[in-house]
Design a protein that fits this description.
The complex is a heterodimer of chains A (about 425) and B (about 350).
Chain A: H1 2-18, E1 28-34, H2 41-60, E2 69-75, H3 80-91, E3 100-102, H4 106-119, E4 122-124, E5 149-150, H5 156-173, E6 181-185, H6 190-193, H7 196-205, E7 209-210, H8 224-233, E8 237-240, H9 244-257, E9 262-265, H10 272-278, E10 286-289, H11 301-308, H12 321-341, H13 349-356, E11 386-393, E12 396-404
Parallel strand pairs in A: 1-2, 1-3, 3-4, 4-5, 6-7, 6-8, 8-9, 9-10
Antiparallel strand pairs in A: 10-11, 11-12
Chain B: H1 16-19, H2 26-45, H3 48-73, H4 81-99, H5 103-122, H6 131-150, H7 152-155, E1 161-162, E2 167-168, E3 171-172, H8 176-197, H9 201-211, H10 213-218, H11 223-249, E4 251-252, H12 259-272, H13 277-302, H14 312-330, H15 334-348
Antiparallel strand pairs in B: 1-4, 2-3
Helix pairs in contact in B: 2-8, 3-8, 3-11, 3-12, 3-13, 4-5, 4-6, 4-11, 5-11, 8-11, 9-11, 12-13, 12-14, 12-15, 13-14, 13-15
The chains are: A alpha/beta (about 425), B mainly alpha (about 350).
């Protein structure tokens, strides 16, 4: 029977391929790597939805200078090899080769750095890894120059430095005596590892005692063993480097075990869904926020709500923080494309990159008050050095601290 | 061996040598040669999508043949094949990146390194068998996976390592069109070697160990030696397949070599046919094409039932599981056996009995 099934099925596959997206010369091709499944799907879903909605919204509202964005969303399940395979497929899909890619994870983005710089593809990632901030490879910490990589928001390392700064202030404000103890917690994966050394070094600089890191999985699970280690270590501040799904489990496990450590986390580490799931255990978590929240009354939220209606016509769905950052990322890319259009050669990866590097304290016009003003230069891809630290309380999220980090040259690419 | 029951009129053997040729009949030899020639022309007509599938069939097929030598011919079991596949990929990238040895040489060297690791892991096989061996190899899968995630010097740790593409005489083989020939070369060499192996004394010893280990031992076959050797050869194949995969993708990371891939390799040899060289290739073809076919089928049906296209990822995974179950029930001897039945049907027509 199989002998018969295969040819028919192959014919069907062929038919499916031929009937693929229609090609139009005046379209701008963009690739979209999303993690709707896999260990980071908790934050990958709202972010990926934000990217898709924003691009569809731009298309419905005149496109990029009249040109439509043609994009393909691929759910790669946070599996780096699959992201590379998808990238290679896109690059071979002549004449629909993307000029820009909206990516996702740190593992795949860092693995693709060399590929995108060889192919001159503008790459905007949801990974804010500090390793992506050195376009010229000037810093000695940089393993590979990342000229075509951009992201919106403070780097993971800067974010962690920001919350550590807050922790230091918090320690003083509480009037506690002695050296506060800091510990990094996260999976052994490029994303949680990205700020590990950089942040530990800064914590030491601020007078923290840095303890041995504790490993817990990116996949949610029972983390009581890790919580007991944490309790035993006597850490005062624990930096949670995983995404919110895993952090919910950790915070709850630690509440059961009776840990009274102050949890601090990164931009993907906490959100509205996490707070709702964690309940009482979640109050007190302090973390980095990179854009306005859904309930904000910033003027730009009008646009975000309109974008949200693309996939939720009722307008009832409350979007988590990640959604706003996704929308910001797409609008920054759109602005760069608009500027690139006026350059020689039009909208190419190289021109989009050049246009991004000309932005100074830029905020997309429709998103006033939503996105952080960002600056990229040909030597420095740290878009912003402003870190908003929020704390989860029973009354909602409160902005407790805003750190403005120095742009130290030795922090570039770290 | 294979074609005895279905030989054409006028085909007969008068010597043992003639009875153990690589190809059972001249016809099958001509078909194989013709197949290679057709494949040589494939890059001229096929687009990158189909070439990519053929390349996948190539490197997975090599690894699957290795597993078939272990499982199908020697009667051992391994749940750690993906780890060896990964080891080959990392080893080749490491040899190339750290010592500057050209990729075309680092691939066989990676195969040899993997052989060494495979033989170490195979040592327990000298003493244990069946379920216990399955668990021992499962352990090696996890040990190696953890090694991949931590051995910064060798694998680049959790961030993985970059693998350069092949260049031959200053000619970059990075594109699918060119890499296809590299993979085809290795497939032909490795499959000829595999088919040849079974004609040798060692190959017969493998089969004897599988069929009845006690009888084999009484006949003077050193069980420990052949079990470990089988692990070694199987790992060599996995290493070569993995190295080809690594240099094709350009990036190697530990996530790609989980227990799931090990199970898929087992699926390939079971679906293809245990103890058949051609079966390894058929099974791999089936396993590589199945998800693609499911995707396009779902795409076609998805227009009618919009909810379905959301679940493509699940349907793909479930289809693989379902295929294995259906094969175990309806065709336990695999595609290779089915293929023989089809051939026999035509040869004996209309007097099949």
């Amino acid at each position: 029977m199989n002998k018969r099934v295969i040819p028919t099925a192959m014919a069907a596959a062929l038919a499916g391929l031929v009937a693929g997206p229609a090609f139009a010369a005046d379209m701008i091709n963009v690739g979209h790597l999303a993690a709707y499944t896999g260990p980071t799907s908790d934050v990958g879903k709202p972010y990926g939805q934000g990217i898709a909605d924003a691009m569809n919204y731009i298309n419905a509202n005149g496109g990029v200078g009249g040109r439509q964005i043609q994009f393909e969303t691929v759910d790669y399940s946070y599996n780096a090899p699959q992201a590379i395979a998808t990238y290679k497929r896109w690059m071979a899909s002549n004449p629909n080769v993307p000029v820009a890619i909206q990516g996702w994870g740190t593992a795949d983005t860092e693995a693709l750095v060399k590929f995108v710089s060889n192919d001159k593809v503008f790459f905007m990632s949801a990974s804010y890894s500090g390793h992506l901030t050195d376009p010229m490879g000037k810093s000695e910490r940089t393993k590979a120059a990342a000229p075509y990589n951009f992201f919106y928001g403070p780097s993971y390392s800067d974010g962690c430095r920001g919350v550590v700064q807050w922790a230091s202030e918090d320690w003083k404000a509480k009037g506690s005596a002695g050296k506060p103890k800091f510990v990094h917690m996260g999976d052994n994966h490029p994303y949680p590892n990205a700020p590990k050394e950089a942040c530990a070094a800064y914590a030491e600089e601020l007078g923290f005692e840095v303890l041995n890191p504790i490993v817990y999985s990116l996949k949610p699970g029972d983390f009581k063993a890790q919580c007991l280690s944490l309790k035993e270590s006597g850490a005062n501040y624990a930096y949670l480097a995983n995404t919110s799904g895993s952090n919910i489990s950790l915070v709850k496990s630690c509440a059961t075990v009776g840990v009274d450590t102050q949890f601090i986390s990164n931009v993907w580490g906490w959100d509205e869904n996490a707070q709702a799931a964690a309940g009482d255990a979640g109050y007190g978590v302090a973390w980095v926020v990179g854009a306005a929240g859904w309930s904000s009354d910033a003027p730009g939220m009008e646009t975000v709500r309109a974008v949200s209606k693309v996939s939720d016509p009722s307008g009832n769905e409350a979007r988590p923080l990640h959604y706003m950052r996704a929308v910001c990322g797409v609008f920054f890319m759109r602005d760069a494309m608009l500027a690139a259009e006026k350059m020689d050669g039009g909208v190419t990866g190289t021109n989009i990159k050049a246009a991004m590097e000309q932005m100074t304290d830029h905020v997309p016009a429709e998103l006033e008050g939503v996105c952080l003003p960002s600056t990229w230069t040909p030597e420095d891809h740290r878009g912003t050095n402003q870190v908003l630290v929020y704390k989860s309380t029973p009354n909602g999220f409160e902005n407790v601290y805003t750190a403005t980090l120095e742009r130290r040259s030795e922090w570039l690419g770290w | 061996m294979a074609g005895h029951a279905t030989m054409r009129c006028g085909e007969f053997r008068t010597s043992y040598r003639a009875d153990t040729t690589i190809f059972p009949t001249p016809m099958s030899r001509n078909f194989a040669l013709g197949g290679v020639v057709v494949l040589l022309l494939a890059p001229l007509v096929l687009n990158a999508y189909y070439l990519n599938l053929l390349i996948q069939i190539g490197y997975y097929g090599i690894a699957a043949l290795g597993l078939n030598i272990l499982v199908g011919f020697t009667g051992q079991i391994s749940l750690g094949h993906a780890a060896f596949f990964g080891f080959g990929a990392f080893a080749s990238a490491w040899i190339n990146n750290s010592f500057g040895i050209p990729v075309i040489l680092s691939i066989p060297l990676a195969g040899l390194l993997t052989t060494a690791v495979g033989m170490i892991v195979g040592v327990p096989a000298g003493r244990i068998k069946g379920l216990y061996l399955a668990i021992a190899t499962l352990a090696s899968q996890f040990i190696l996976e953890d090694f991949f995630a931590r051995a910064e010097w060798f694998t680049g740790g959790s961030s993985g390592s970059l693998a350069n593409s092949i260049s031959l005489f200053g000619y970059q083989m990075g594109t699918d069109q060119r890499y296809f020939y590299v993979v085809l070369f290795f497939v032909v060499v490795m499959f000829l070697f595999g088919a040849n192996l079974l004609r040798t004394r060692d190959g017969r010893a493998f089969v004897a160990v599988r069929d009845h280990y006690l009888s084999a031992e009484i006949m003077g076959i050193n069980l420990t030696k052949y079990r470990i050797l089988s692990f070694g050869i199987s790992s060599f194949y996995a290493g070569i397949g993995g190295a080809l995969y690594g240099h094709y993708l350009g990036f190697v990371s530990a996530e790609g070599f989980t227990i799931l891939l090990s199970i898929q390799f087992l699926g390939m040899v079971i679906i293809g046919g245990l103890g058949s060289v051609m079966g390894a290739l058929l099974g791999t073809t089936f396993m590589v094409l199945l998800p693609e076919v499911m995707t396009s089928l779902v795409g076609t049906v998805g227009d009618l039932l919009p909810g379905l296209s959301q679940g493509v990822a699940y349907i793909k995974q479930m289809a693989i599981g379902l295929a294995i179950i259906l094969f175990l029930i309806f065709e336990p001897d695999g595609l290779a056996h089915r293929w023989k039945m089809i051939k026999a049907y035509w040869k004996l027509y209309p007097f099949s009995y």
